[in-house]
Design a protein that fits this description.
Order of helices and strands: HEEEEEEHEHHHEHEEHEH
Radius of gyration: 19 Å
Helix content: 25-40%
Strand content: 15-25%
Strand order of the largest sheet: 1-4-7-5-8-9-10-11
Number of helices: 8
CATH topology: Rossmann fold
CATH class: Alpha Beta
CATH architecture: 3-Layer(aba) Sandwich
Number of domains: 1
Largest sheet: 8 strands, mixed
């Protein structure tokens, strides 16, 4: 009797492990040192930040993507590079990365969670380091923004070159991101080449200063979402980005929710911002990106 109980249990563990392994395929974006940061010697770290209720990654030197295959029964050929946020000092990998990838996978979309290069932090309190240096924040992150954008473009290029491996369509490779990752997503929608052009972009509560970039003549369609009560006062950045796309007569949709704060990601807070995923799914469907 014990054997009859144990065998199904072992089988369940095996299947769960196989599924996890499939989800957790990790690919380095560059062979050898990443271009532009060849001299970096610090080591990537991971820690829990309790007040953020999040596991975060720090000191990314070797950018990677983690692949979350689409639900096989719903797979539609669309792929999305997902860029977590964290002020270019940390990456909030769960609710702005893995959770988004699983949400997309359940809708037939393959997710590629990107770990892009970050500002070096030297203590066990990277968030505290960032907050202590707010006066010099722009200068500290400016060089890294360019590297992170290059990583976003490299991730798109990888996905497009491996469409056969993941059952994707080459004209359905997009990018989305949250906060700093939203800036990466928006920047890739301005600074691409033919090979790494995103087919669509979804910056969520992005940082986007005037002059950060202008939409090219073939700029992709864009979906933007943020909350009016964003604690970092980034709602105007979403409006500026929307106005740039609208002025260029490019497809763009903006959702500004009355409450939700900054960093809501995939979390449910019983606030208006909870609806952004429904709106995003409707937008993807209208674009034909959820159809087989």
């Amino acid at each position: 009797m014990l054997r009859l109980v144990v065998l199904p249990f072992v089988l369940v563990l095996f299947l769960a492990g196989a599924r996890l392994k499939a989800e957790e395929k990790v690919v380095r974006l560059y062979e050898g040192p990443a271009p532009g940061s060849e001299s970096w010697k610090h080591e990537e770290g991971k820690q829990r930040i309790d007040f953020l209720q999040a596991d975060v990654v720090t000191n990314v030197v070797h950018p990677t993507i983690q692949v979350f295959p689409a639900n096989a029964a719903k797979a539609n050929g669309t792929g999305v590079v997902i860029c977590p946020g964290g002020g270019f000092h940390i990456l909030s990998m769960d609710h702005e990365g893995y959770d988004a990838a699983r949400w997309l996978a359940d809708r037939g979309v393959t997710g590629f969670v990107l770990k892009y290069r970050l500002v070096e932090t030297k203590s066990d309190n990277p968030f505290g380091e960032m907050m202590a240096n707010l006066q010099n924040f722009d200068q500290a992150v400016a060089p890294v923004v360019k590297l992170a954008t290059a990583d976003g473009l490299a991730a798109i290029d990888y996905a497009r070159k491996h469409v056969k491996d993941y059952g994707l369509k080459p004209d359905r490779i997009g990018i989305m991101g949250f906060s700093a990752g939203g800036m990466v997503a928006a920047s890739t929608a301005c600074k691409y080449s033919k090979e790494n052009r995103p087919d669509f972009a979804a910056p969520i509560y992005p940082a986007w200063a005037e002059g950060s970039g202008n939409p090219p003549s073939d700029a992709p369609a864009m979906f933007i979402a943020a909350a009016t009560d964003d604690q970092l006062n980034l709602a105007p950045d979403s409006i500026r980005l929307y106005e740039q796309w609208m002025a260029a007569k490019k497809p763009v949709e903006l959702h500004l929710y009355s409450t939700g704060g900054h960093g809501f990601g995939m979390r449910k807070q019983n606030k208006p911002s909870d609806n952004w995923t429904d709106e995003f799914a409707a937008w993807l469907n209208f674009q034909g990106l959820l159809k087989k």
